[in-house]
Amino acid sequence: MAKSINYSYETLKKFCKDAFLKFGFDDAQSDIIVDVLLTSDLYGIESHGMQRLVRYHKGIEKGLIKVDAKPEIVFETPVSAVIEGNDGMGQLLGHKAMEIAIEKAKTTGMAIVTVRNSNHYGIAGYYAKMACKEGLIGMSMTNSEAIMVPTFGKKAMLGSNPIAIAMPAKPYDFFFDASTTVVTRGKLEVYNKMDKPLPEGWALNKDGKGSSDASDVLKNIVAKAGGGIMPLGGETEQLGSHKGYGYGMFCEIFTSILSMGLTSNHTHLNGKGGTCHGFVAINPAVFGNADDIKEHLSTLLQELRESPKAEGCERIYTHGEKEVIAFKDRLKNGINVNINTVAEMVDLCKYLDMDVKKYLGEEALKLTLNKSSYDM
Amino acid sequence: MAKSINYSYETLKKFCKDAFLKFGFDDAQSDIIVDVLLTSDLYGIESHGMQRLVRYHKGIEKGLIKVDAKPEIVFETPVSAVIEGNDGMGQLLGHKAMEIAIEKAKTTGMAIVTVRNSNHYGIAGYYAKMACKEGLIGMSMTNSEAIMVPTFGKKAMLGSNPIAIAMPAKPYDFFFDASTTVVTRGKLEVYNKMDKPLPEGWALNKDGKGSSDASDVLKNIVAKAGGGIMPLGGETEQLGSHKGYGYGMFCEIFTSILSMGLTSNHTHLNGKGGTCHGFVAINPAVFGNADDIKEHLSTLLQELRESPKAEGCERIYTHGEKEVIAFKDRLKNGINVNINTVAEMVDLCKYLDMDVKKYLGEEALKLTLNKSSYDM
User: Fold this and answer.
1) Do B246 and A157 make contact, defined as CB atoms within 8 angstroms?
2) Residue A355 CB-half CA count within 13 A
3) Which of A161, A193, A274, B29 is geometrically suited to a Cys-Cys bond with A267, CB 3.0 to 4.6 A?
4) Strands of the A210-211 sheet, one edge to the other
């Protein structure tokens, strides 16, 4: 039995665009949301692409995400801004916030914009890349529903709290986008959908013991029953658990703390989202000749790629390289969508009164006949 | 046989101060250097305190560190500066650079200062704390001699590349200072001095295989023979090796890249140091009421400390708490200095024509009779 369906980028784009229009977003808004979502799949970060659609669907359905929210700038200086998101769609708030950060950084040299009361905004890296495309260093961070168990704890207190940074380089931009947990919740969701046991060193059950059961860990996270994902560095200080936990706090400072928003442990309670983001844009030109600086970074990246490989390893990647490779491949060869995710897309069609066959093909209907995202 | 000697803070301060005066630094300069050095021991970060003295000693002796170097600001804007260090003492360059960052941030809201052609500057966190004491968020980073082997590589290409961040909070400031490798080179030096095998998951031998032999790994690092320390997250992507490697690059961007200085893999070659630093200062007041923001962070830290503990764990620490505890303890009860480090201090006395008995006591002479740092 097929475990996935291959769709062209254009097919998924059309489907997503029409879905978000049906949700009530306008044309420009829908374009932004779809671009964030599909860029993730094109980059090969399946955990944050189509497989996350169901969360937006349900977020809107439950009123966590308000389609007609109007963001407000509640504090502003030439180098900073704080945006009250009023429970709007994360991608729209993130896009707007980074636009403001970019504009300010072009004038002043650097800027930080924080956002509170937002929702899941997709891959952090998307916004870092926005700045990078303008020749700037971009950073993007978000807190999230509590999922990281602090070192020596057994209750999730911080989010997956990704930190992304992008900087112009040749032939690929430097592009680093990673959760400060060992893995993301999205990765657990992917393992869950594939019915695969989790590797050792990723997650903790509700008693704070190592667990390989993705379904159980995810249920406990949602039920706030205890357990969660380990910080980068694992459970103990010996391999640096306190460091992953520290980077998680770094993210929290630049998101919830500097926006006076909800910290991860207070988000997603009582029918409220409350996610917070942070965006940084820095113009390399305030440190010298931007072209020379770009060249300097490119040289280091090239030296890294060319440095001696460990036995059995064919190449050393620099950050952003895998995404460029995946992007080209998927634009050409299509995007494989897991059948459980297709089931969620079929449900969404029904919910929005969209023609499944027209958007997703007969195969989608046939293969998902006995599945429903509501069962999961 | 005693493995260490306990010295009071005042005794070590007097010894260090006079040693740096003898090296040719002036009074104010010596005070700064000694404060950076001993703050590390007071914080309980032995790897970067007295046990690093020998590196400064030998750095000055070999001409890597130029006592009379004059730093120059080679590029400057209201939010940034680049300092050419001219091979000066790292602590002095770091202190000056952070002072500039603080001054700029107080005017503009935020600033970044980078330094090139410096030397080892002690604990990164010292400079982050400088900003924190002024009510600002402080960050400090440094590259170093190549020691981190990138994911899938076998040659050290990046430094231990610490990232430190400090932010005002009650009752303790948030203070996170960590290498982006699993552990620092200093930790390996401490294990080496104690003749202890390294835990699994820390270091690689010259062929890129896991090694527990601190002495061998350190020799290979110095000889550029291959191997080194793993990025935070270990050897493979499964536990996030690419993330530690990514944070290492983050550090490299804010140090060598934005200063147009030597990247870690080019430092410490051909009798040249070339270390680069980066300093960030951000005024929380450009995001709202600084007191409210401090309170908000303090609440999260308190919630973390009070959250449920894993079985067998008595407390959850927040970053900076251990340093406060160690600081109080060591000021009161003294600082234990490993006997191999005492031997280095005795050598330094002889080199600088200082009276060992007067500065370090008879015990130091007796216990280090057959030891010399030059043998190690």
Assistant:
1) no
2) 6
3) A274
4) A210-211, A203-204, A228-229
Which residues in chain A are contacts of B263 at CB distance < 8 A?
Answer: 296, 299-300, 303
Beta strands in B249-353 (DSSP E): 275-282, 335-338
CB-CB neighbors (< 8 A) of A250 in chain B: 163, 165, 176
B109 with A244: Cβ contact below 8 A: no
Q: How far is B212 from chain A (nearest CA, A)?
A: 14
In tens, the pLDDT along A192-236 reads: 988 999 999 999 999 888 999 999 999 998 888 999 999 999 998
Tell if the CB–CB gap between A249 and B282 is shorter than 8 Å.
no
Locate tokens 């998924």: which residue?
A12
Spatial contact of B100 and B116, defined as CB atoms under 8 Å apart: no
Q: Is the pLDDT of residue B374 over 50?
A: no
* Cα–Cα separations (whole angstroms), residue A78 to A85, B108, B113, B292: 20, 8, 19, 21
pTM score: 0.96
Q: What is the per-residue pLDDT for A2? A: 53
Average pLDDT per consecutive 10 residues, chain A (376 residues; last block may be shorter): 86 97 98 97 90 92 96 98 98 98 98 98 97 98 96 96 98 97 89 91 92 95 92 93 98 98 95 95 98 98 96 94 96 94 94 96 87 49
Identify the helix (H) or strand (E) that includes residue B6.
strand B4-7
By the 10 Å C-beta count (0-12 exposed, 13-18 middle, 19+ buried), B112 is classed as: buried
The helix (run of H) or strand (run of E) holding residue A174 is strand A174-178
Asked whether the predicted pLDDT for residue B375 surpasses 70, the reply is no
Residue B195 CB neighbours (<10 A): 9
Cβ contacts of residue A220 below 8 Å, gap of 6+?
Answer: A205, A206, A226, A227, A228
